[in-house]
Amino acid sequence: MLSRVHGRSSMYNNDAMIAQSIWLSRCKVIYYIFFNWMYGIVGSCAHLAMVNSSWTQSHIVKLWGIPDRIKRVYPPCDTSGLQMLPLERPMKTPTIISVAQFRPEKAHTLQLEAFSVAIKKLDADLPRPKLQFVGSCRNKADEVRLQNLKDRAIELKVEEDVEFYKNLMYRDLFMAAGAIPIAHNSAGPKMDIVLEEDGQQTGFLAQTMEEYADAILEIIRMPETERLKMAAAARIRAGRFSEQRFYEDFKAAVQPILRYSSK
Prior knowledge:
GO terms for molecular function: GDP-Man:Man(3)GlcNAc(2)-PP-Dol alpha-1,2-mannosyltransferase activity. The protein is mostly helical. The protein has two domains: about 1-70, no CATH class; about 80-240, Glycogen Phosphorylase B (Rossmann fold). Helix content is about 50%, strand content about 10%. It has ten helices and seven strands. The protein has helices spanning about 1-5, 15-20, 20-45, 55-65, 110-120, 140-155, 185-195, 210-220, 225-240, 245-260; strands at about 50, 70, 95-100, 130-135, 160-165, 180-185, 205. Helix 5 crosses helix 8 (about 210-220).
């Protein structure tokens, strides 16, 4: 965030008015430097801090300077039922599911445009995929973004292939259910989620429109045996985020503190 303000990049967390002003940008940089310094002093007093990802762990260690007292504990997800679902499901109509609130920091338009590119490159003998956006709207601004997405789908001539769902969750969209993820090549997905499992690829990472489109096409073109291998590896990887794993990691993190306080 500090580098973004310093570079005067306008984004959802750096207002355009501030980004366009040298004076306001400098004031914001000074504010963040001071805030980071205070945050580091307070954080360094903690006996234990639990973080939910490798990226956050690296960031907090850098700010607080207490690596031995910062433990990574992944948030719990109920994957037990999903891992009982069969993987051998024929892919008659490939479905790409995007799950996220319709918020400005989510790259929904990029995903929609990548899907359009993939459709244009799709081989004639392959099944035509569908794109489903599943999310929620917090306010009127989110509703406007959702409508803009629908309008963009019409402009791209893919409205028949795109579906929008608000406040709806699917059972079959998780890695634990055998879904192959295409995730943004940053932070959590890159460092924790879409990693190899016993040498087997578990999904795809992408950043540009072309990379997303290529990943979509690669999954659709993938032989069924290869897709099932990747889905099985993704399911095993998802076990690292299970409720049971959370209980084990949480107990391991707090045990030294409990032993110390009982003395």
